[in-house]
Amino acid sequence: MDKQDAPQHGEDDSSKVAEASLDKVRQLLFGQDDRYLAPSVDKQVRQSVSGVVSEALIERERKDGSVNKILVPLVERSIDRSIEVNRDKIVGSLYPLVGSLVRKAVSAFLVDFVEKTNNIIESSFSVRGAMWRFRAWQAGIRYSDYVAAQIYQYKIDQLLIIHRETGTLLVSVAADESKAQDADLLSSMLVAINDFVADAITQSASSESSLHEVKTDAVTLQIKVGPEAILVAAVVGKLPPDVQVKLQTTLEEFHHFYNQPLAAYEGDNSEFQSAQGVLIDCLVSDKREAYRKPAGWKKIPVWLLLLALVGFGCVQVYQNIELTLLTNKLRDLDNPPGIIVNRVAENDGQIHISLLRDSAAMSATAWLAEKGIDANKVTISERPYLSVEPAIVQQKASQLIAEIPTLEVNLQSDSLLLSGQLSSQQWLALNQSLQKIPGIDALTIDSRALKISANQSLDVVQREALIQHYRNRITQFAVTFEVDASQLNATQLAHLGDLAQDILALQAILSDTGSAPKILIIGSSDQTGVASKNKALSAVRAEAVKRALVEQGVPSASLIATGIGELPIDNQSGRMVLFTLFPQSLLGAEDVEQ
Q1: 579 - beta bridge partners?
Q2: Cα(11)–Cα(270) distance, rounded to whole angstroms?
Q3: pLDDT, tens digit, for every residue of 389-421?
Q4: What Pfam families does the record point to (predicted)?
Q5: Where are the alpha helices (DSSP H) in 125-174?
Q6: Angle at Cα 474 formed by Cα 469 and Cα 477, nearest 5°?
C-alpha cells in the first residue's frame, strides 16, 4: 500500500512545477491578470454581442416577456429624470404637436355642435318643426332626440384603411360586396388628392393640411387621418357626432394593435386581414323606426288631430273676424236720439259699449236689435243723462199730453199741434209741466186749435195764478230786429205763435169776467240814422208784429200797435218790439210802478 502511494506523490509535485512554469510564461506573454490581452478580447466580445443583441432581446421577449418587464421601469425612470432636468425643452418640443391636436379636437367638437344646434333651430321655427314636436309628444320621446333621429339618417356602406406613406390599401370591408366600390382605385385616388391638398394648400412648413370629407351626389367619404394609416368611410346620409367619434376611435385602436406591422410595412397585407372584424362593427346604419303606438287617448290618428286643430283655428279666425266687423259696425252707427255712445272696445272675445241714455230714449237693446245686432254679443255699460234733442223733447211732451184724454197731438219736425178741449186749470197744469222739460223752449207748441173753457171751480188763488203766469209771459216777450229791418223771419214768426197762444189762453180765463184785455205793441229803434225815419221804422215793426199775431188767431181788436221812435241805446236792444197789457188792473204792482 505504501509502495503504491509514493509514485503518485511524485507525479503531483511534477505537475505543480509544470503549472507554475506555465503561469510564469502566461504572465510574461499576457501580463499580470491578462492585462495585455483584455482590451483585445473586450473589443472582440462587443463586436460579437452587438451583432446578436437585438435578436437575443426579441427572442427573449417572445419567450417570457422579461425584457419588457426589465426595460419599462428603467425607461420610465429615465423619462421622469429627463423631464425634471429638461422640462422647458420638452414642453417646447411637444407644444406644437399637442396644440395642433387640441385645436383639431376642439374644432371638430364645435363644428358638430354648431351644425347640430343649427339644424335643431331651423327645424324648430317651421311647419316641419311643429309636426316633429307633435310626433315626438305622440311617441313619448324628447323633442331633441326626435330631431336627431330625423336629421341624422345614415348608412356606412364601405370602410377602407390605407397606408398613409405608400397609399396602398391595407384592408377593406363592405356591407354589400356586390355594390362596393373598387377599393384599390379609391385608395389611390384619395391619397393623390390628399397629397395635392398637403402640397398645394398648406400655408407653412410647420402645418399640414389634409382632406376630411369628400362629397358627391350619392355618397360622402368621411376621412380620418392617423400617423401611419388613413380610415375612409363611404357614407350615405349624414353621420351624427357619436359615429364620427367611433370611426376615430377605431382608427386609433388599429394603430395600437398594428403599430409594428405599420412601421415595418413593405407591401404585405396579410397581417392586417384580422382587422376586418373591428371594421365590420363600424358598418352601422340608422333607419327610421316605427314609433310605438301611444296608449289611451294618444291613439287618435294624427290626421284627425290635425283636422281638429285646423277646425279650431278656423273657428277662432272666423270669430275674430266677426268680432272685428261687429266692432267696426258699432263704431260707424249714428247715435239715436237720447243716446250717446262714448266707447266701443273689444276685450276677451266680448264687445263692450259705454253709453249715455236719456230715460225717454229707446233702450240700448232695442236700438241694437233695430240695427240687426245681437245684444247677447255685446256688454252694455249705461249711465243716465238729460237730452235736449228735439225728438226727445217731443217725446216727453207727448207723454204728458197723452195723459189728458180730451187732447190730441200731432207731431211735426219742431212743433206740437194741439187740438181738443180742456179747462183753464188743466191748461195751466199742462203748461207748468211742459216748462219743466229741458229744451222745451226750442219746441213750438201750437194750441190754436185748442179750446180752453173757463173753469167755474177755479178759486181766486188759482185764477190769479193763471193770470199772473200769462201776464209774465206776455210782458217779458220781445222781438228783436236787425239794422234797418222790419220784416219777420221764420224764427220770429214761430216765437210769435207761442205768444199768440198765451194771449188766447189769458183771454179765455178772463172771458167769464166780461173784461177784454188789450195788448199794446210798442215798436222802437236805436239812434242810428235820421230820427224821423227811425220813428216811422219803429211803427212799421209794431204793425208787422200785430199782423203776425192776427194771423195766429188773436183778435185784431185786442191789439194796439204804435211806434215810439228812438231809444237811447246803440245796440240791438234798441231795435225791438215790446208788449204790455191794458187795462192797468191786469198789470202787477211792479209794472205799474215802472
Answers
A1: 521
A2: 71
A3: 878 887 888 888 777 777 777 777 777 777 777
A4: OmpA (PF00691)
A5: 127-139, 143-151
A6: 125
The CA angle 486-488-489, to the nearest 5 degrees, is 135
Q: Which three cell numbers stand for residue 271?
A: 397581417
CA-CA distance, 224 to 247, in Å (whole number)? 7
* Residue 333 included in any domain: yes
* C-beta of residue 464 within 8 angstroms of C-beta of residue 432: no
Residues 356 and 406 in one domain: no
> Looking at 341, 362, 384, which one is the last position of a domain?
384
pLDDT of 527 reads 80
Question: Do 499 and 442 belong to one domain?
Answer: yes
422 and 337 in a common domain: no
Number of domains present in the structure of the chain = 3
Cell of 68: 419588457
Is residue 431 in some structural domain? yes
Q: Are residues 186 and 274 in the same domain?
A: yes
- For the stretch 30-58, pLDDT in tens is 556 555 556 655 666 666 666 667 777 77
Q: Are residues 453 and 537 in the same domain?
A: yes
Cα separation, 287 vs 563, in Å, equals 117
Provide the 8-state DSSP code for 221: E
pLDDT at position 28 is 58
In a domain? residue 407: yes
Q: 215 - beta bridge partners?
A: 220
- Kindly report the backbone phi and psi dihedral angles of residue 578, in degrees, each rounded to the nearest multiple of 5, phi listed first: -110, 170
Helix axes 302-332, 127-139, angle to 10 degrees: 130
Give the Cα separation of 327 and 43 in Å (integer). 116
Domain hosting 447: range is: 392-593
Same domain? For 342 and 484 the reply is no
Question: Which residue carries 272685428 as its cell?
Answer: 324
Residue 549 located in a structural domain: yes
| Same domain, yes or no: 312 and 417 | no
Q: Are residues 272 and 329 in the same domain?
A: no
CA-CA distances (angstroms) from residue 502 to 13, 54, 137, 447, 519?
194, 150, 88, 9, 12
Q: CATH no. for residue 255? A: 3.30.450.70
Tens digits of per-residue pLDDT, 503-523? 887 887 777 666 677 889 999
Question: If you search the block for the grid coordinates 249711465, which residue do you land on?
Answer: 383
State how beta strands 518-525 and 478-480 pair.
unpaired
Exposure string over 282-306, b if 16+ CB within 10 A, otherwise e:
bbbebeeeeeeeeeeeeeeeeeeee
Please report, for the domain that includes residue 439, its CATH number: 3.30.1330.60
SS (H, E, C) 186-212: HHHHHHHHHHHHHHHCCCCCCCCCCCC
